[in-house]
Design goal:
The complex is a heterodimer of chains A (660) and B (316). Chain A has 28 helices and no strands. Chain A is mainly α and 660 residues long. Chain A has three domains: 54-67 and 438-657, MetI-like (MetI-like fold), CATH 1.10.3720.10; 109-142 and 304-336 and 343-382, no CATH class; 156-293, MetI-like (MetI-like fold), CATH 1.10.3720.10. Chain A is globular and about 85 Å long. Chain B has 316 residues and is α/β, with parallel strands linked by helices. Chain B has two domains: 26-109 and 248-313, D-Maltodextrin-Binding Protein, domain 2, CATH 3.40.190; 111-216, Glycine betaine-binding periplasmic protein, domain 2 (D-Maltodextrin-Binding Protein, domain 2, 3-Layer(aba) Sandwich). Chain B is built from 14 helices and ten strands. Classes of the chains: A mainly alpha (660), B alpha/beta (316). At the A-B interface, helix 13, helix 17, helix 18, helix 23 and helix 27 of A face helix 1, strand 2, helix 3 and helix 8 of B. Chain A: Residues 149-328, 467-646 form the ABC transmembrane type-1 domain. Chain A: One of its GO terms (cellular component) is ATP-binding cassette (ABC) transporter complex. Chain A: InterPro entries: MetI-like (IPR000515), MetI-like_sf (IPR035906).
Chain lengths: 660, 316
């Protein structure tokens, strides 16, 4: 129990030097700022002169063009895109939405798919999941979105399994060969923080605009967690299981197939769940590179100011995500069923048979009742116009308008603009020193060194001011999200019913396509930084709330009871017992909030910003691959700096608290 | 599963095999669609025309700037709406690289400029003359812009030079770039409730005309070279001191290989020419009447047989 104290003894031998390094960093930074304030700072110390900026983008362009044309990589990728990948996509598109391609069988009637979804739901999680599964597809058909939803699904059913397979293979390779893992890890970190716009352009150039590029971008986006979870799961396989396998004389392949992979089943399936969720997260974003379906429709609807229809598409995406998420999670929990020897074949496969029966049955019935095959244009239940009116009238309520007008004035004039101008006024070296000091103070030496390297690269990329504005938006949004999210989490953690409801709301907010937040944000606050910060805030508050609830409810009951017995007030208990123990978990949430903010700040370019996102958006139009990559890397490096500092803090803290 | 589909596929193969249809390739003609209604419907109309001629057609959703690269490479066969103002630069860049060419203009003309919804005029009656803007600047002020008016320009990548114009004409306005068309509509939509004056970038033909009646600000008339020669326009020392051309072109572009691969379809494409009212009608079918684009295209085609027939008959 001794280790479970909430007061952490400082490892005092290092404190002195640590304090001194921090002082040196900060004093230098302030000296630079002061020098600028009194006007004696030479220009080259304020901003790196244009002439010293290396032409990274041009060099990268040349490299890309060399790889693309001279090495002929484009022929390889184009062959893959137009050969096997397109074949798979065409097949699924024919079956699901009836595209005129081999095998010329589709489209499968919606009722048959809904029935199968119901049966699968029942098989993995009982009646509730059956209702969710069938209900989602019935909603999709009834609302008149079947065809576009199936265009989306036809890409996902190809992209998700491919991401799974590639992730599994790479994960196994990383587990087998340490060297490969060491090489892969940094690539994955960058991939996970790289803004999606940076995936999109190479995907188009190498894999042809349309579903093929969409599938490739989706796979790239979805693969990292699959690799990480596979490696993690394989590493955790207990030696007893391995020995049992060896004793029964397994070959290496048998060891992998029958011992390691089944033993790591849970982690691998969590990876599958992640893959599915990330694939759905890309539905709207890939619409920019020609992916048809829900995302493309959503963008078209938003382009003609149809809030109601956009909202309905958002609901469909959430329903699909929640259904697939719950089903795959239920599959994780469900252990394989083993039948007694001699159970008849039909009994073992009872559920599959029922599913098949319903599938064929509905296909036949649909030939007689066409409404079961396709809900016609005039028959669907879309309430687009009514929702339009409802949303607009809510936004026009005087009380809401008054509040937002005041908030817009206050935040913009008193908080955001002064804060931005302050950050922009800081000389580049001073800014870097301050970031390094922060990373060092929070995470220790290694994150500090990386912060120095990463931010120096950003400074030499030639996009310093825009990077600072990006960072300013992220910091403002996360700060506001913390002020809202943590109190909300604390209150919710008091009762399990509240926790459950709030966590459900968090899930929904997270899967709802972020684009849909943009329009109400603009209507409430206008095109300015407040709308930008507001739309990021919704996204960034989610992990903060979630991890606050998880952190607080995982505090060992002995500790809270001890606090109660010693007569501490609720406040004392919260601040001296619960918070210190929950902080490492809450830090994970904080870290995620920052990562989400970096993701969302790029999307917020669609409101109107002057940051890296705006430039990235601009590169989408052209073919400036080099510039696109430099901008993306800047976002990634800044995000990684925070990620490393905070994760390292949380780990150290956990170790010292004796948790984990 | 669906016997009908199998049969129709078989018939199509048979027809194509018998050589009854011109010499067009049976590969699908890929038509790009973007995210605004008139373009989607127009592309669908053209797709239906091609299908009537016995071609296979497929649609692909693309970015409206990146599409020229795709046309050039032959990934898509054509582009129905090349706007002089919005896409002229991307189109010309692709033209220089080679691979696509001009397939003729539509009758329709396009205009893109500073615009306000009608209710704005009540508080600033001097409009649409641009000289009235400075007197009304305070009406367009927002918390962030202080005393200056705010003009919401199109996204930066549309290269509208709003800032340059505000400076050249000495307008007391701060120019803010919206991030997307949706952001522009959201601003107008938010101002609509209490009829607040707003000044935003807008264009025609466009669905917004039907939803929010409004007018373009009449800037000094465009002179050729206003964007390159400071001497043009009222301010002799500045560029961009004119309004945009009030009659910009609306072009069709085609992939160079289209002519040989689908000669009949290509011939029809060069004949096709839509007018402003026709385009507005297409947009209206989707934006106001809430039809799906495919149905809107079919309906438009039914109503306008006499317009379309000559385009096709000239090529068979």
């Amino acid at each position: 129990m001794a280790t479970l104290s909430t007061d952490i003894p400082d490892t005092s031998s290092k404190t002195w030097s640590r304090g001194r390094i921090l002082t040196v960093l900060l004093v230098t930074a302030f000296a630079l700022i002061l020098a600028k304030a009194v006007g004696i700072l030479p220009d080259w110390l304020n901003r790196i002169p244009e002439t010293m900026i290396p032409p990274t983008a041009q060099v990268l362009d040349a490299v890309f063009s060399f790889i693309q044309n001279d090495l002929g990589l484009i022929h390889v990728t184009r062959f893959i895109a137009e050969g096997p990948l397109e074949f798979l996509l065409d097949t699924s598109a024919n079956l699901l939405e009836g595209k005129r391609r081999w095998p010329h069988l589709g489209p499968i009637p919606w009722s048959a798919i809904a029935a199968v979804a119901g049966v699968v739901g029942y098989a993995v999680g009982g009646w509730r999941l059956a209702a969710l599964g069938a209900g989602t597809f019935i909603w999709t058909a009834a609302i008149g979105q079947w065809k576009i939803a199936m265009q989306t699904m036809s890409v996902i059913v190809v992209a998700a399994p491919l991401a799974f397979l590639l992730g599994l293979v790479l994960g196994i390779a990383a587990w087998k060969h340490r060297g490969f893992e060491r090489m892969l890890k940094p690539i994955l970190s960058v991939l996970q923080t790289l803004p999606f716009f940076t995936y999109l352009l190479p995907a188009v150039i190498f894999f042809k605009v349309g579903p093929t590029a969409g599938a490739v971008a989706t796979i790239t986006f979805a693969i990292p967690p699959m690799i990480l979870m596979t490696t993690l799961g394989l590493k955790k396989v207990s030696p007893e299981v391995v020995e049992a396998g060896q004793m029964s004389g397994c070959t290496r392949w048998q060891m992998l197939r029958h011992v390691y992979v089944p033993a790591a089943r849970t982690e691998i399936l969590v990876g599958v769940n992640q893959v599915i969720m990330l694939c759905l997260a890309m539905v709207v974003l890939t619409a920019f590179i020609g992916m048809p379906g829900l995302g493309a429709k959503l963008l078209a609807m938003m382009g003609s100011f149809k809030l109601g229809r956009s909202f309905e598409i958002g609901v469909t995406i959430v329903l699909l995500a929640v259904t697939l998420d719950r089903m795959s999670k239920a599959w994780v929990v469900k252990q394989p069923v083993h039948f007694e020897r001699g159970t008849p074949w039909w009994k073992r496969h009872q559920i599959s048979l029922i599913g098949l029966g319903l599938f064929v049955g509905f296909i036949l019935i649909a030939q007689i009742f066409p409404i079961l095959a396709e809900v016609g244009r005039k028959q669907h239940l879309s309430q687009g116009k009514e929702i339009d009116v409802a949303i607009k009238s809510v936004l026009a309520i005087d009380a809401i308008k008054g509040t937002t007008e005041w908030l817009r004035w206050f935040l913009n004039v008193k908080v955001l603009i002064p804060f931005r101008n302050t950050l922009l006024a800081i000389p580049t070296p001073a800014f870097i020193l301050m970031v390094v000091a922060f990373a060092y103070w929070v995470g220790g030496r290694k994150p500090g060194i990386y912060a120095a390297i990463f931010f120096t690269i950003v400074a030499f990329s030639g996009w310093w001011d825009r990077s600072v504005i990006t960072l300013y938006t992220v910091i403002s949004a996360v700060a506001l999200a913390t002020m809202i999210g943590i109190p909300l989490g604390v209150v919710a953690a008091r009762s399990s019913r509240w926790s459950k409801n709030i966590l459900l709301a968090c899930d929904t907010a997270q899967t709802f396509p972020s684009f849909i937040y943009l329009i109400p944000a603009i209507m409430l606050f206008g095109v300015n930084d407040v709308a930008v910060v507001f739309s990021i805030l919704i996204f960034a508050a989610v992990p903060l709330i979630r991890y606050t609830i998880i952190g607080l409810s995982s505090v060992p009951p002995e500790m809270t009871e001890a606090a109660d017995m010693s007569g501490s007030t609720r406040r004392q208990k919260l601040f001296s017992v619960q918070f210190p123990l929950a902080l490492p978990t809450m830090a994970v949430g904080f870290n995620q909030a920052i990562m989400f903010a970096f993701f969302m700040v790029i999307i917020a370019a669609f409101i109107g910003t002057q940051d890296l996102g705006q430039e990235l958006q601009r590169t989408l139009a052209g073919t400036e691959l080099g510039k696109n990559f430099v901008l993306g890397l800047n976002v990634s490096l800044m995000a990684l700096t925070f990620d490393m500092a905070i994760s390292s803090w949380a780990e150290q803290r956990k170790k010292r608290l004796g948790l984990d | 599963m669906k016997l009908k589909n199998l049969l129709s596929a078989a018939t199509m193969a048979a027809v194509a095999g018998s050589g009854a249809i011109a010499e067009d390739s049976s590969d699908p003609i890929v038509i790009p669609i973007h995210n605004w209604s008139s373009q989607i419907v127009m592309s669908n109309v053209v797709g239906l025309i091609f299908e009537e001629m016995g071609n296979n057609v497929e649609y692909v959703t693309t970015d409206s700037q990146a599409v020229y690269e795709s046309v050039r490479l032959g990934d898509v066969a054509l582009e129905m709406e090349v706007w002089e103002g919005a896409f002229g630069a991307s189109y010309r860049a692709a033209l220089e690289k080679g691979g696509l060419h001009d397939a003729g203009d539509h009758d329709a003309v396009t205009r893109e400029d500073w615009w306000y919804p009608m209710w704005t005029k009540e508080s600033c009656p001097g409009l649409p003359d641009w000289k009235a803007l400075n007197d009304c600047a305070h009406l367009f002020a927002t918390p962030e812009t202080g005393d200056k008016g705010r003009y919401l320009d199109g996204p930066v990548d549309w290269l509208k030079h709003g800032k340059e114009r505000a400076e050249a004409l000495d307008l007391n306005f701060t120019v803010i770039n919206a991030g997307s068309a949706a952001a522009l509509w959201a601003e107008i939509g938010a101002a609509e409730a209490d009829k607040k004056p707003v000044l935003v970038f807008n264009w025609t033909p466009n669905f917004a005309e039907a939803v929010w009646p409004g007018e373009f600000v009449e800037f000094p008339v465009w002179e050729d070279g206003c964007d390159k020669d400071p001497a043009k326009g009222p301010n002799k020392d500045a560029l961009y001191d004119c309004g945009n051309p009030a009659k910009g072109y609306l072009k069709k572009a085609a992939w160079d290989g289209m002519k040989d691969k689908w000669p009949a379809a290509y011939c029809t494409l060069t004949n096709i020419s839509f007018t402003n009212p026709q385009i507005a009608e297409m947009a209206k079918l989707v934006d106001t009447d809430e039809l799906e684009p495919e149905d809107a295209a079919a309906e438009w085609l039914d109503n306008n047989r006499s317009v379309v027939e000559p385009w096709m008959s000239a090529c068979s």
